[in-house]
């Protein structure tokens, strides 16, 4: 009896999926999310939980290296697919299921076709990232040239650990012979791991603390905390593959325990130009002279806020209404009639707004007074709310209720007030939101910081500057 | 003898559970055909972390832990107390709740000082 | 009234606990609205947790660089061990695997092991997010444990004994849940909290990519996620002898009443879970210390006065 085969088919029926959205791929993300819901596949929050990796991204094979890191992190059996067009979502998930059932894992590495320009660009990015790019050598279709690793390890701080993974997953199993211990697993804990890597860490741009380096990574350094105590401090790039996280956003944070000490935007991939950001598309099209009805714009606003609310509720650990918000969002985007959706939308918004527990849990977090918001160039819901996380949530809920009744308005769009703010200002609204929220993060606990971020829900698709109408 | 008969089943249970956990690991090794363990960098949201995560945690755990320990140790007295309340009569109850009241006054003071404030 | 169970009952208990966990998880999946989707019936949905368990068994395991494998593994193994050992003193009807004179204290001691277990499991992988998850459980424990202990003591006080069978015996006629409602409610809260489940899933929060479980796959993950259901079933089952009269009831035999009451408690917990978002420890901490502790103290005082006057 083929027990393994049976188990494989069990997995293939409903694999937990880690969905990673590339910048600019909101449309594809929504399509995949809707399809996952339709099939009843659970979503995974980390590679360890996932059996399938679905990348919602733009066509052209331009996928960053950290994706390969995620792929290494997934336990077998696993499979991956990429969804380059929203229409492919259903097909792609079918393919994923098929791959899992047969035990194949998917087409070989994403970044198959690459020339040297990309290599150079990638290198620049990695240096800023402090060495997440040890997968670079896999660029050339998984056949890594190990010869170059010597000098590269010096720059990348902990190339060794990644090199190990890369080999076992991509470079063919058991091919690790003949390389210095540092590259291999044994090298991790060996004595020369220490002196061999001590210097590399220095070059890795950590700055400040060099107390000990083990297995190619330094230990936590120390710094004063908000109360003036000297405590351990960790640096962490948060994002871009966290669940319920703005696509493509990376925040460089310093953590003391689970309290954020500082948070800065990490220069990440930008959404490709030449495509309107999905959520502000109607207003931008109208500004570009196209005929867009107000009803269509309000529908998009309503869906956008439902998306944000769904994400916020998911971050706050309330899966049921989060799923309802997302279900309603999908129905709106598939053109459901206002009359059909409105009662359910109202039930959801009222239920969430009435929840005392949610209010108690979110009150006082991420306070942004209207005056300060105005100074920072924030427009839209965050300015209207002029308060804490819960106030911003309530503004979304109110705007959803208003929008859902205006979806049949056939007049042309006259203003530029998109779901995240005015699109005719100098600054894309999401850029203003990010600028406003980053100063609110230091001092917040990890969970609170996630709530604050989710309550602004900046859309990195807008960062590219397409906001200039 | 009585002691043995009370705790013997517990020992049996302990052995059984440990064996079951070991069995699960064995079964898993069989089912995965002893595939090599997947050994990635820790997940921190996609990009690779730059430091080891092992670190001393934030200080606010310690005051709460101290308060907890103080209260917890004292409340262990309540277990034996439970059995003698009626024999000892009202003084047992009065003393115990005076004691708990004092403890709670200390907690209330710590709360006012912000020891239970988490962020 | 206490009867010593034959030793083979110790063999049946873990199996019964696992069955209960699978049933509870299946019920949870059905209530969660998974049924009827993409052609799978109620049965298909109810068996989803079982399939998930099988999937995890056949899944590759992971280790991260410089992980503290020993501590992590001890933590993972402790979860089911704590659940099973705590369940040892739960009487099925009027028979329990063991009935020591300090049964309540034993239960308390065993479920506190879960506290260590989740923290160790979170510490193990040398990953920031799982470490955050582990510490979250410490914080949660600091909040729920004290009211929980007062609730346990109150039940013992009502019976003037720490022997579980005595507690059951003291509830002939009137269940403790009726005249100790606050203690019962607090007990239910902490039952969910110590199985880091539902609104108390903070240590495994999705915002931290799964927290303590973020780095575990395969059988490791199965122990941590399956163990929480074992813990939940064990604590729900223990609420029956403590507050709901144990196996007492008309017509049916004692074990059937225990089963029914346990199922009812689980159903209430599973249904209530969907009404609340995750309670973060930073808010629950203050609530537990400033509301639940005085509440349970007053409850204990009330019970002590009643006991004095009977």
TrEMBL record, chain A:
It comes from the Bacteria. Residues 107-221 are annotated as: Disordered. InterPro entries: NiFe-Hase_large. Residues 118-128, 136-170, 180-200 have a biased composition (Basic and acidic residues). This is Uncharacterized protein. It comes from Streptomyces pacificus. The lineage of its organism: Bacteria, Bacillati, Actinomycetota, Actinomycetes, Kitasatosporales.
Automatic annotation (TrEMBL), chain B:
NDH-1 shuttles electrons from NADH, via FMN and iron-sulfur (Fe-S) centers, to quinones in the respiratory chain. Its main location: membrane. Keywords: Cell membrane, Membrane, NAD, Quinone, Translocase, Transmembrane, Transmembrane helix, Transport. It is a multi-pass membrane protein. It comes from Streptomyces pacificus. PANTHER family: NADH-QUINONE OXIDOREDUCTASE SUBUNIT A, NADH-UBIQUINONE OXIDOREDUCTASE CHAIN 3. InterPro entries: NADH_UbQ/plastoQ_OxRdtase_su3, NDAH_ubi_oxred_su3_sf. GO terms for cellular component: NADH dehydrogenase complex; plasma membrane. It holds the Pfam family Oxidored_q4. It comes from the Bacteria. Its EC number is 7.1.1.-. It catalyses: a quinone + NADH + 5 H(+)(in) = a quinol + NAD(+) + 4 H(+)(out). This is NADH-quinone oxidoreductase subunit.
UniProtKB/TrEMBL annotation, chain C:
Keywords: Membrane, NAD, Signal, Transmembrane, Transmembrane helix. The chain crosses the membrane at residues 74-94, 174-197, 222-244, 256-275, 287-308. One of its GO terms (biological process) is aerobic respiration. One of its GO terms (cellular component) is plasma membrane. Residues 1-24 form the signal peptide. Coiled coil: none annotated. Its main location: membrane. It is a multi-pass membrane protein. GO terms for molecular function: NADH dehydrogenase activity. The keyword Kinase does not apply. This is NADH-quinone oxidoreductase subunit H.
